[in-house]
Amino acid sequence: MAAEAGFTLVEMLVVLAILAVTAGIAGASMSRGGPERLVRATAERLAADLARTRIDAIRAGDRRDLVFDGESRAWQRAGARPVPLPAGVTLDLTTAREARAASPAGGRSTIAFLPDGRSTGGRIDIRMGETRRSLTVEWLTGVVRASAP
């Protein structure tokens, strides 16, 4: 009698177990990347809006502000829609007291850019859980620098 070609039940169970372990490892590595990707994307978007605000101030020859509204959890530059913070992401701002007092934004936090490219400066920490990135706006040059501690 000839042996029949095919797989035994034990062989099939071993293959399924290997697939389950592989899928579990892949799923765990993807979920860890979630907060990191979200914080990085938020930092990149905010850095781009800060740079655009600086360019707008230089082109217009007038002061331009990027306004942070804690109540609505969003930031906004002049002439643009507010950008909401993703759920779970927080911003910690350190800005110049003088910028807040002189701001037409009614006491909300601002980083202002002047026609010569300078700014009021500031530091923005973007966090989600243990993941953090920082943006620093240099007051003398208005240049935005990113760092990931």
Automatic annotation (TrEMBL):
<dbReference type="InterPro" id="IPR045584">
    <property type="entry name" value="Pilin-like"/>
</dbReference>
<keyword id="KW-0488">Methylation</keyword>
<feature type="transmembrane region" description="Helical">
    <location>
        <begin position="12"/>
        <end position="30"/>
    </location>
</feature>
<keyword id="KW-0472">Membrane</keyword>
<dbReference type="Pfam" id="PF12019">
    <property type="entry name" value="GspH"/>
</dbReference>
<dbReference type="GO" id="GO:0015627">
    <property type="term" value="C:type II protein secretion system complex"/>
</dbReference>
<keyword id="KW-1003">Cell membrane</keyword>
<protein>
    <recommendedName>
        <fullName>Type II secretion system protein H</fullName>
    </recommendedName>
</protein>
<dbReference type="InterPro" id="IPR012902">
    <property type="entry name" value="N_methyl_site"/>
</dbReference>
<keyword id="KW-0812">Transmembrane</keyword>
<dbReference type="Pfam" id="PF07963">
    <property type="entry name" value="N_methyl"/>
</dbReference>
<keyword id="KW-1133">Transmembrane helix</keyword>
<dbReference type="GO" id="GO:0005886">
    <property type="term" value="C:plasma membrane"/>
</dbReference>
<comment type="similarity">
    <text>Belongs to the GSP H family.</text>
</comment>
<keyword id="KW-0997">Cell inner membrane</keyword>
<dbReference type="InterPro" id="IPR022346">
    <property type="entry name" value="T2SS_GspH"/>
</dbReference>
<feature type="domain" description="General secretion pathway GspH">
    <location>
        <begin position="42"/>
        <end position="139"/>
    </location>
</feature>
<dbReference type="GO" id="GO:0015628">
    <property type="term" value="P:protein secretion by the type II secretion system"/>
</dbReference>
